[in-house]
Amino acid sequence: MRPFLLSRDTFHILVALADRDRHGYSIMQEIAERTGGEIRLSPSTLYSAVKRLLEQGFIEELEERPDPEHDDQRRRYYRLTKTGKRAAMEEARHLEKLLSDARASGLARKRA
Amino acid sequence: MSRAAKSQAGVLRLYQPFLWLYPAEFRDEYRRELCLAFVDRWREEHSIAGALFVWLHAIFGIFYQAPREHYHMIIHDLRYAFRILRKDFSVTAAAILILALGIGSTTLVFSLANGLLLRPLPYWQPERIIAVTESSPKDPNETTQISFPNYFDIRNRTRLLEDIGVYDNNQAAVRGEGSAERIPSAVASDGVFRVLGVEPLLGRAISPEDDTPGGPKVVLLSEELWQRRYGRDPHILGRTLQIDDSRWTVIGVMPARFHFPDRADLWFPLQMNPLKARRTDYFLRAIARLKPGVSVEQATSELESLLEQIHRENPAVNNNWSARAIPIRDFVAGPYRKAVITLLVAVGLLLLIACANVCNLLLVKASARVREIAIRAALGATRRRLLRQLVTESLLLGLAGGALGVLLAYLGIPALLSLIPVNLPLWMNFSPDSRVLGFAVAVSLLTALGFGIVPAFGSFHADLTDSLKEGGRGGTSGTRSKFMRQGLVIGEVALSVILLAGAGLMIRSFLALRMQDLGYHPENVLTVSIDYPESRYPDGAPARAMLRRLTEEVSSVPGLISTSFSSGIPLNDGWGRLFTIEGHPLELKDMTFINHIVVTPGYFRTLDIPLLQGRDFTEDDFDAPRIVIVSDSFAKKNWPKESPIGKRIRFGPPKNSEPWHTVVGVVADSKHGTYKGEDRASVYLPYNSEITPNALLVRTAGDPLQLQQSLRSRIVAFDSDIVVSRVFSLEQIIDRAGWQDRFLTVLFSCFAALALLLAAVGLYATISYSVSLSTHEIGIRMALGASASRVRAMILRQGMTLAAAGLFIGIVVAFALARLLKTQLYQISPNDPATYIAVPILLILVAALAAFLPTRRATRVDPVIALRHE
What we know:
The complex is a heterodimer.
Chain A: H1 8-19, E1 22-23, H2 24-34, H3 43-56, E2 59-61, E3 77-80, H4 82-104
Helix pairs in contact in A: 1-2, 1-4
Chain B: H1 3-15, H2 24-44, H3 48-87, H4 89-118, E1 129-135, E2 143-144, H5 148-157, E3 161-175, E4 181-188, H6 191-196, E5 202-203, E6 218-221, H7 223-230, E7 240-243, E8 246-253, E9 266-269, E10 285-290, H8 296-313, E11 322-327, H9 328-378, H10 383-417, H11 434-461, H12 464-469, H13 479-515, E12 525-531, H14 541-555, E13 560-566, E14 576-581, E15 593-599, H15 603-607, E16 611-614, E17 627-631, H16 632-638, E18 648-651, E19 661-667, E20 682-686, E21 695-700, H17 708-718, E22 723-729, H18 730-737, H19 739-773, H20 775-783, H21 788-817, H22 833-858, H23 863-868
Helix pairs in contact in B: 1-2, 2-3, 3-10, 4-9, 4-10, 4-11, 5-8, 9-11, 9-13, 9-19, 10-11, 13-19, 13-21, 13-22, 19-21, 19-22, 21-22
């Protein structure tokens, strides 16, 4: 099996951006909520990952503000790119495969 | 401001300083985002524990991520730099090669300096060890050995020296258990080992009981000799060895790599009697250990007053000399210090030239890159970012050049040492160590900054829009850069002229040294040291009979023209003695030394020293001694208006009971004691029953070295107990005497040649580049009817102007600096006209060649093509 493309934190960021464009703090919040507070990124971890994802072209910074309700002029918003989406989907497929392998060998509970 | 806002501002003030851990680019880009996200997160928590967690989490995150950002940035810069350097492979390769030559030569010379001047000597607390010497009243830097009684009195009276010991270099013939061989050895008083503070590996060192007159016959071995000759015999202690004519009991083995002085492998107790030793026999070297906290100056002033006291008590032997303490490092390395520093300066100049050369290459490259840099700046790269990128490229170049340079130096050390014909003292260790490596890295980095900074800053001065407009022809990007390039070339030429002038002076001096009249003809002379067992051939009739038979035996070797024995090989062994002319008694302090040489008949014939007056020695002189032959200068100085024949002289200090010797002949002057500089006058004595000569000199019909084997086997066949050693032709002996000058001259000349080459390459590159820039101008000129030869002359003039400017500056500086070489030069003035005529001629020729090559390309420019560029 080939190694995973994305680190855990990076994957979480991509997942957080999958439904809508977000600014940094919103990404942190979303991850914390989704994992029930189990995974909390520090600002530095978040922005190091963001920088890397921007360089790789997996996300992009928005010029316009997408969310008039929550818009905060001071903040930068990020959006998942097509490449980023493909990478995240690929990663999800790998995780799925891994999970099903784990189930088959009794390491994880079978689906109800 | 509300309370919440206040506390928020306070938290930020605490958080922000940590952001300085990030690279500037990252910080500039994300500082605001990081702060906002942190404050939002902080506001989420209301409990103290929660707030504390957010804090720690955030700070830990910075400590974890910031180094990674630095790492990413460096890797990114390196990758980019690597790509850029690979793209311009020829420029990169040239730069690395030039740097490797510069850094390699510097590292090589630094290894020498490290081994001689920096590496700690292998003794305990070597900074507290001093050499104790007697020093001349005329020049305190002129020092001599010390006499045993003086040492003895100093030892008993000193309050500042913890211990003092004396020693003398020697050679010992070791016989039995395998072939007889001559081994470097020393006689030493018991204090020597305590001063050095080195414990024996086995057994004990020489004790005060060993070092008493008539004390036990004991000997100490080096670990190397124990290994080589005695196979690490575990029962070596207490074993008796046949050395010279007696049996000596081994009391100890010194640890590996301990050799003192120089190369000694055997140590014998000195066992001198202070009552019998003469105060005027200055033949011992003394070392002492300072008490803790005592300075060398304090020791010197104590020694001065002690010697003064000794002279007051013994007025008959007062020679007015004083005493001096010299740090042991200066004492052993002193003779080499000047040469090493001269080489360091030379190699430093070479490194500067290499730097200027690479700087020039990068300037040319930078002007070709103006467009690239302008585009990157337009795309938002900050100035700092670009600068960092350019410096990374330089550092990469510097380190690559440095690595190759260290490799060159590493390979060069053995080659360099192979130029040295003598066995160096074993405390010298030239193998590269961490200090040398650290030096090389530091030099590489400094060099990289040196050649990298200028072009990097230069890149920004180009106007952005201009460079984009120009379409990357790299064109007019500044008269500034052009001036800088020309300045660099002028500097390079000037530096190389300085080195060339230095090399020229050294070559001239070396030639003068080699062509000096030694007073004998060294070609076709073979010299051999021999040691015979004195118990079987005691001085007097038995030794004489043996020498006579040995002479006959040796003379029958085919190809030998003449044979003789003497008490020493010229320029190799010497014995200086004081003397008194009958009727002209002198005080001790006014006396001078002469070379005291004992020879068998045939000596002057063998060396081809002409007899000027009187007669040569004959076989019968053995029985009628007390006669001497003196050198021409000795005769002229002491009997300027009379014939010296029949006059009498006496050896030793004034008022002694030595017999008078009558002068029977005068021979031409010849060099025995000193190769470089004024030699003492010489007095020859016929072989007599008091001193048996131990050097064999033969003149051969052909190459003397061809005969060494047959000569050696003839002597061993005569008596296998005779040890034959140090077989050299007299020319080899002269080579060895002048090795330091040759070494320095060869090395200096190599550096000068490299410097000239680099300067020529720099000149060529600059002219070549300017030709490529002015293709357009040349095209117009040629279209307007300028002939090829006029264009050529124009370019040549441009090159020669630069060369002439460099030459002028170089000559002026060289002229000012040359007097620093004065002490190294032999019979050549630092303002030697020949050198200052030859160097400019050589430089002009090389510069003309370097400037001429690009002209050929210029005149091949087709005006139509050149103008089509518009």
